[in-house]
Amino acid sequence: MHPSQILNTAIETHHPAAAACLSALGRRMFFPIGIPAQAAQAKSAKINATIGQLTNGHGAALPLAAIADHLRDISLEDTTLYSPQGGNKALRAAWGEHLAKKGDGPMTSPFCTVGLTHGLSLLADLFVDNDTDVILPSPGWGNYDHIFGVKAGGRIHRYPVFDDGIFDPNAMSTALEKIQNKGVVLLNFPGNPTGYTPTPEQLAPWLEAIRNCEKPIVVICDDAYAGFVYEPGHLDRSPFHDLADADPNRVLTVKVDGATKELCFFGGRVGFVSFGTSGEAGQALDTKIKGMARATVSTGPAVSQALVLSALNSPDLAKQQADIFALSLKRYRSLKRCLAEAKIDTLPFNSGFFALIPVKGDPETLRLNLLNDGVGVVAFPQHGAIRVAFSSIANDDIPKLVNALAKHIERQI
Amino acid sequence: MHPSQILNTAIETHHPAAAACLSALGRRMFFPIGIPAQAAQAKSAKINATIGQLTNGHGAALPLAAIADHLRDISLEDTTLYSPQGGNKALRAAWGEHLAKKGDGPMTSPFCTVGLTHGLSLLADLFVDNDTDVILPSPGWGNYDHIFGVKAGGRIHRYPVFDDGIFDPNAMSTALEKIQNKGVVLLNFPGNPTGYTPTPEQLAPWLEAIRNCEKPIVVICDDAYAGFVYEPGHLDRSPFHDLADADPNRVLTVKVDGATKELCFFGGRVGFVSFGTSGEAGQALDTKIKGMARATVSTGPAVSQALVLSALNSPDLAKQQADIFALSLKRYRSLKRCLAEAKIDTLPFNSGFFALIPVKGDPETLRLNLLNDGVGVVAFPQHGAIRVAFSSIANDDIPKLVNALAKHIERQI
């Protein structure tokens, strides 16, 4: 039997919804037993002439000093030699422990990707073709359309996160009706560009609709902004943990997250994909995504992975993250207060890095007027709104930003 | 007009062969004018609230100390914040200068990828679909089949690099006849797994065949091992430089290379794609590949890119590279001498990291026997050969490795 067929059978048997959702490419994908597999077997050989990387002959790295001189107190092997397919193993284990603190449902070992986009793109390759209905949030990240629509060729549908400025309890059940044969559903809390995270009560009807979906679906939880929730009473963990134990005949839940925002390492490009399943189906999906990654980037950046692993192992990490959270919370509160004082309405926001402000008139004109006054924001003409990233402005500048907003928003009316 | 159509028209007009070779996905690809474009416009705004990355509000990075403490004498902005789409601009310029030393044909600014595999994969996305004949070297890197065949769905054909142990002058013209409508041709010198680089005279009939190909083709020069040529008289630069000025109605030549081997930074994942064209077609192809990368990884690892840029700017780089070359040359010469003394025949090798040794009997059995004696090599049953990576063994171990080879190869007869 072809290796892809062995994987497909394992997935069909143990997680039927996942099998039903595989794209044509996803079905034919496997991990070739090539050099990486033979190199893994030779790992403890005294003379290991398997891998095409230049070492001292005993496994030690021989990096150029021009590179190594910039690295300190970190293994040169872990940073400058190849990381294994799927990522640094200690890092995968450490991230798995990090996630296990939030829930104990079925979950595969986090598969290390080149930032979260790569994880989303691999899932699109595995599960999206022109027979897939892809259900995306609106407002939502524009790159979802590009990944799942333009590149993967899925049929894109958008569900409203808000109805008349309030979280829409019926949005998910209505959206799921659009699925003809198989679907991919994207959840993103805290949201980009909304900066919104619902309460558990608000999300309940969405989870109910997903659990009871008539057609097989893959639910992708994009948890890029995990941890940045500023108001009590709102979700303090990913919906992944509530959906991972859904009926495997109906739903496969997948978690996409990473160090980009959670550890403020934007330039690192360390993301993870964890499937909400276990056993043989989990192993087969891990092999499928490893095969897909082998065909897109081979391994990810070892230096970034080693830096993230070191951070996760640092006894000081919690304090450093708390400092970043406190800084972000302060900006959030300033922005909330200044907007209220200026009587500028926003869509609900309580988390993440953004606030979304509906505007009368053309958001693009407003954006250009603000730019003339030295204030950069992002226009979303399709939502009649502008997005303010309070993550990237100093606290002292927030009143000035709101003043500029107030001046130009009034002009538009 | 849709943005993809504008790009397609520019490519059709200025580089017809490239347009004729685009896959269905390649034709519909464009770069969405989303947040990155608006953020670029706001770069000099005093208050820049465009990008979702956490900074001090004035553009300075706020990395966790648990990450930043491992970096020294290098910009925290360049290493821990997002790099631009397509890569660090100074790095792209520096790599372009590095390449310009070898030839002055048309060439786009090197597009930065996540290692060379990502470059090959992006080119497969742009140019390979199930109507593409993909012409690969044999022996050749197994991952080519995975990228261009399993993932991209092209029809794979293999051309022999050697005929009866000698570089085959007719291999390319024969292989090109297999192209039905459009083709992708892969050249890889120094080769993996062959470790071979031809002389200019040997390569001449291949270049002639490519220049005169009747069907439109994209020629990809995989120059992973550039610079590691140990014998005088063999190619001292990529075939890219001889093909970049081929008739744009027939051929598009593309260079794929990077820091992985050239700068011994295996864990960095810094590769480049440069198209052998210029002007409007070059700009359009750069936009197409940028759109494709946006849908696969978004940006690449900034920390790796910053380290490579720093190395390229180091006044000591040439000496450090010369030391690495000298070490590699010494291992090459030891292996050549020991194999000759042991009367073990090889396929011709003169460059790169590998030697390929044909064996009587089953290469996989030989591999396992060697492994039992503590010697790891890679078996290529499809070529009746094993591959020795002399890049990863100490000079002192080479006689031992050859002794083990001699012992087990004899047993096989």
Describe it.
The structure is a homodimer of 413-residue chains. Chain A has 413 residues and is α/β, with parallel strands linked by helices. Chain A has 2 domains: 269 residues, Aspartate Aminotransferase, domain 2 (3-Layer(aba) Sandwich); 96 residues, Aspartate Aminotransferase, domain 1 (Alpha-Beta Complex). Chain A is built from 18 helices and 14 strands. Chain A has a 7-stranded mixed β-sheet with strand order 2-10-9-8-7-3-4, sandwiched between helices. A 3-stranded antiparallel β-sheet of chain A has the order 11-14-13, with helices on one face. Chain A has a two-stranded antiparallel sheet with strand order 5-6. The termini of chain A are far apart.
**CATH class of the largest domain in chain A, please?**
Alpha Beta
State the shape of chain A: globular
Low-confidence stretches of chain A: none
| Number of domain units of chain A | 2
Mean pLDDT of chain A: 96
- How far the N terminus sits from the C terminus of chain A, by CA atoms, comes to 67 Å
Number of extended strands of chain A: 14
Q: What name does the CATH topology of the largest domain in chain A carry? A: Aspartate Aminotransferase, domain 2
What keywords describe this structure?
Aspartate Aminotransferase, domain 1; homodimer; 43% helix; alpha/beta; 2 domains; seven-stranded mixed sheet; 18 helices; three-stranded antiparallel sheet; 14 strands
